[in-house]
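Figure 2 data, in text form.
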Amino acid sequence: MPLAGIGSRFIALLVDSLIEGAAGIVLLVAAAILLPALRHFWRLSANWALGLFFLFIFLLQWGYFALFEAFGNGRTPGKRVARIRVIHQSGRGINFFESLTRNLIRFVDYLPSFYAVGLVTIFLSRRNQRLGDMAAGTLVVRDREIEAPTWNESRTRTITAVAFSDQPAISAPHLRVVLPAPELAKLAPADLEVLEGFFDRRLDMDLATRASLAERIAAALCAKSGLTIPAETSVETFLEAVAYQFRELGRTH
């Protein structure tokens, strides 16, 4: 999935900041009404009332991003508008602890103001990661868009359109390999990271080393999960199918 740039991330942050600001105003008005009542009926001291107010502000500031990203498939309302999301660098969705980690370090990325540290880190990072992303092992990516055909687009517009129409694309070999989900579920995100490391570097290897390493990785995965390489399927195609279907399994669970 393509990495999200500064522009889309800024749009998401702007929308989320506006929502946070509106929620903060509502909270301020509610506190102005409720806190005096709490002090009157429960004899709550002014310091305790003020402490509760700042606790709610803290939860709004830090919980907004962490909870939305953890339980909203990596997307806050702002990220939905900008069509971006947070994922783990292995390709799966992020969990609560990873979301909490990347957002607790948001304070450091904000320093000295206006996310100066975060912007510099994103520019210097190969994967557009701020410090929070590096600590949590996360990436911000753009959502894939599937364009629906326009009305009457499927019909032939001219007599000669069939002759010049695009031929059906041949699917990648690993997409035709179907692996059992129970065995795939026995794998871990670390296994996916090993596969991605191999995919990133295989073009730089000589053919003998590449084939040997692919066989070793496949043997380790099969021993761990109980998977078997389907007949008439190459080792690398099998590894590509494992990586692809493991990512899909993580998105649906």
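Caption note: Strands lie at 84-88, 138-142.
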